[in-house]
Amino acid sequence: MKKVFLFLFTTTLATATFSQSEKYVKAMEPKVAMLDTSNSADAWKDLGNTFERIAEAEKTQWAPFYYAAFCNVMAGTMSMPQDGSFGDNSAISDPYADKAEGLLNKAEAMSKDNSEIYCVRKMIHSLRMMGNAMARFMTEGAKATEALEKAKTLNANNPRIYILEGQDKFYTPEQFGGSKDEAKKLFEKANGIFMVSKPGNSIEPQWGRGQVGYLLSQLK
């Protein structure tokens, strides 16, 4: 009788765990698909809030915290002045960067030495630098470079590393180290990795595919 009870208990527990996992994946899939299509600060904020709600409901999954952090960085980037002007815009950038960092720290607590997490950490430092480039280039710029190098050490086949490197080369003026030719090579490397890699599941980080295509189209 005890064996029968134990079997039924174990089976019920396994079914409940599977159902919870299936529910989590189904909640995540359509939101992950939106990462390459959101194109406004408000859209990124809304998507980030959704990931954060999923993260707080699940509590033990690193990915929704990671995606929520990514969305906050993108919302912050889209909120910055788009006229190319310099100045102190830290009042705009820093609240987004601070929130993203808090969320990313929660993701890292559950997934150590994760190349994807270091890519977003690089983006957070870059956002802070954008907030006041003249004052922060030496500090936040160095931290951004360090985070990206760590991401590469952990997984040199992560295409998002080369997207981020390429963007730095693409958007930086030549007199400050930018190069459209070098950017193109980096985007082509990222695209080549996308062409041969397959995600392990439907909610693994895959953002950047559409972005690479667009950026390469600008470099023909």
- Total helices: the number is 9
Cα-to-Cα separation, first versus last residue: 73 Å
Please count the beta strands (DSSP E, at least 2 residues each): 0
> Which runs of at least 5 residues are low in confidence (pLDDT < 50)?
2-20
Q: How would you sum up the major sheet? A: none
Shape annotation:
globular
Describe the fold and architecture.
This protein has about 220 residues and is mostly helical. It folds into two domains: about 35-140, no CATH class; about 155-220, no CATH class. It has nine helices and no strands. It has helices at about 1-35, 40-60, 60-80, 90-110, 115-130, 135-155, 160-170, 180-195, 210-215. The longest helix has about 30 residues, at about 1-35. It is globular. The protein starts with a helix and ends with a helix. About 35% of the residues are buried.
Structure summarized in a few sentences:
By secondary structure, this protein is an all-alpha fold. It contains nine helices and no strands. 76% of the residues lie in helices and 0% in strands.
Protein traits:
mainly alpha; 76% helix; globular; 220 residues
List the SSEs and their pairings.
Blueprint: H1 2-33, H2 41-58, H3 62-79, H4 90-110, H5 115-131, H6 133-154, H7 159-171, H8 180-196, H9 209-217
